Amino acid sequence: MSVIVVPDVLLTLAREAREQAYAPYSRFLVGAAVMTKDGRRFSGCNVENASYGLCNCAERTALFSAVAAGCRPGDFEALAVIGDTPGPISPCGACRQVMAELCDEDMPVWLGNLHGAVQETTVEALLPGSFRLATAG
Ligand SMILES: O=c1ccn([C@H]2C[C@H](O)[C@@H](CO)O2)c(=O)[nH]1
Q1: CB burial of residue 11 (10 Å; 0-12, 13-18, 19+)
Q2: Does the C-beta of 46 come closer than 6 Å to ligand 1?
Q3: Domains of the chain (ranges plus CATH)?
C-alpha cells in the first residue's frame, strides 16, 4: 500500500517538532518529519549536548525513531525539514548519509524554513555517490 503525501502535512509536523528542540548551545531549532509508505509518521528535533559532538540533528532523530518503531530501508515515502534559515534549510552531511542508507534514492525531501520557503529535492540529489556496503539492506 502506498499513500499520497503532500508537503504541507509533513512540513507542519516538522514545524511542530521543531518546538521540542533541545538546542541550548546553538539556539538553532530544527524539526523534521518522515512518512512511511503505509502512512505512519515520525517526527524529530535536534538534541544537543554539552559534549558538542554528541548533538543529534532533527532529521536523524526522526529517522531513528522510525527505525526504533520497526521501519527499515525502503519503507519511507517522504521527509520534511524546517529550520529558521533565510532560505530552505540544508541538511548536514551526516544526515544526508543516513537518508541515503534508509531512504529510496528518488524519495522526495522537502526543505523549508519558518517563512514559507519550500524546496523539493531527493535523497540522491542531496548526496550523490553516497557510501554503501554490499551487506546493508
Ligand atoms: O539540517 C540540520 C542542520 C542543523 N541541525 C542542528 C544541529 C545542531 O543542533 C544545530 C546547529 O547546527 O542545528 C539539524 O538538526 N538539522
Answers
A1: buried
A2: yes
A3: 7-126 (3.40.140.10)
